[in-house]
Structure formats: C-alpha cells, structure tokens
Amino acid sequence: MIVPAITPNATYDFADDVRAGLSQRGQKELPSKYLYDDVGSALFEVISHLPEYGLTRADERLLRRHADEIVNRVAGPVAIVELGSGSGKKTRSLLESFSRRQPTFYYPIEISRAALDMCERELRDIDAISIVGFEREYLDGLQEVAAYRKRGQHLLVLFLGSTIGNFDRAAGVKFLAEVRRILEPGDSLLLGTDLEKSSAQLLRAYDDELGVTAAFNLNLLARVNRELDADFDLRQFAHVARINRETRSVEMHLQSKRRQSVSIPAAEVVVEFLEGETIWTESSHKYSMEEIVETAGQAGFRCETQWIDEQWPFAENLLIAE
Length: 322
Ligand SMILES: C[S@@+](CC[C@H](N)C(=O)[O-])C[C@H]1O[C@@H](n2cnc3c(N)ncnc32)[C@H](O)[C@@H]1O
Known about the structure:
Bound molecules: S-adenosylmethionine
Radius of gyration: 20 Å
Strand content: 25-35%
Number of helices: 10
Distance between the termini: 33 Å
Low-confidence stretches: none
C-alpha cells in the first residue's frame, strides 16, 4: 500500500556544486549523488543485472536467505527506513518477512524521484506494508522519519548495496555517527558492504563490456547539458575505472580526450580541460570484515551479526545502536 506523502524536492544546488567541483584547483570532481537523475537511475538498474556486477545479486541472496533471521533479531514494533532505496527490489524479501509479523511502515529516502517511483511500484503489492517515500537527502529524510516515531517503536535503517563505499573511510565513519545520533539505543542498522577482491574483478565490475557503466558515468555530463545548458561534447570524454590501492577503492573518472573548453551558462562558468585531464565522479571503497566491526564501533554501533555471500565477497552487517 502506498500512503501519499508530501515530498518536496531534496534541497541541493546542482549549479553551485558543478561550478565548485569543476573550478577547483587540481583534480576536478562532481559529487556522485548527481549520477542519479531519471536516466542515471534507469542505467543503474541495468548495471545491477550485468554479469560483471555481482554485488547486487550477492546482497539480494543474503537478504533472501536471512530475512527471517534478521526479522527475529530486530525487536518490534518497528518502522523501516531505507537510505537510497533505488528500485527497492532487493528489499522485498525483508519486507515480506516483516509483513508476516505485523503491519509495518516502510520509508524509502531517495534523492532521485525516478528511483522513488520505481521503488513504490515495485513494492506496493506487499500486504501489511505501508510505503511513504521521501524525496530527500539521506540524513534529512532519516531525521524527519525519526521525528514522527511512535512511543516504543524501534527504527531499522537499511543502507544496502555498499552505498557506504561511496564515502571515503573517514567520511563513512562520520556519516554512520550522524545516523547513530538520530537513532535511539536499541535501534538497528543493516549495512551492506562490498568486500575486498581482486583488481581484475573490480575493474570488470566498474567497466563492463557492454558499456552500461560508461553510459551511466557519461550521463552526468549529459545531465549538466540538459539542466544547465552546457555544451559538453560527450564523444570527447571517456569513462575510466581505476584502482586506487592507497584508499582501497575503485574510482570512476571522465577523461577529456583532447584539450577543450566547455561552457556551462546556468552555472556561470567556462571550464578548460587539458588532454587526458579527468573529472572524478565516484569512488567505491572496499572493506574487510574486521574493519566493518571497527568502523561500526567508532560510530556508536555494536556489530551483532555479519553474513557473507559465498559467490561474491560481500557482507550484510546487522549493527545495533548503543
Ligand atoms: C548505489 S545506488 C544503490 C541503490 C540500492 N540501495 C541498491 O543497493 O541497489 C545509490 C542510491 O542512493 C541514492 N542517493 C545517492 N545519493 C543520495 C543522497 N545524498 N541522499 C539520498 N539518496 C541518495 C541514489 O539515487 C541511488 O538510488
């Protein structure tokens, strides 16, 4: 069931962020949250089906296999909040398990209206689950849901699919600590984390043969053209995936194929690119099992259980707010 909610747009300033990221000295960058407009969210959904990108299937297998156990470990009554739900497909098994226990509210929080719509369509048929979507940034949405919690109700926050990996390690701890500050002792966080694996496997996952990840990345420039009237020539930029051994992450960049200048009128800026220069658009940090326990502890959570997929190194971690 979908409960209509007032969901004004998430507040951010695309033009300011584009100007700042492309005018800064040294490495140019664009925040990864802007990868997800209508086209980006649709392309991410395709990525999750690619044979090279085993992450989503691993996450889904773990959720399906352990849904009942997760439900048993989370004391009820509970409201479920999902940060960056995407299409919500993977969350189905968990919601079905909760719905067998008691009627439950599910609050997907998404910066992308398109992803939120997909999620509501995907999950609305589940009995005894009421969906209230929030088109918000993660913490704004969580804060709002927490403000309306009923007396005695626990919150279960889902942060799946290794989205935590988009933060660098220090920012990841800070983000989890902010989540913890909004929660109360005894609330839970189910955190998906992609584990370290070979460079070859990672590069395949972030630079697939079909070129879907390349299109997902290049769509960010197309979005700047669409929304800010820019004149990026997409054929003059190439998608690049790189391993950064120091930060234990895979980075996505857009590399200029030649010296060129790009005008972005709505951001009031003209940007000069050297041949070979890149815009850094996303990082995906990979974790070790021990590090997750440590990171959770630094943010004020106790790691209660970790489930690991046997086919693709990926962990689902149930953390309890202390
Ligand atoms: C990597 S995708 C993961 C989607 C889904 N959780 C999964 O595991 O397949 C990240 C999702 O978070 C959303 N997102 C990114 N940054 C966000 C932000 N700052 N606030 C809210 N949602 C955000 C994106 O629109 C996208 O749907």
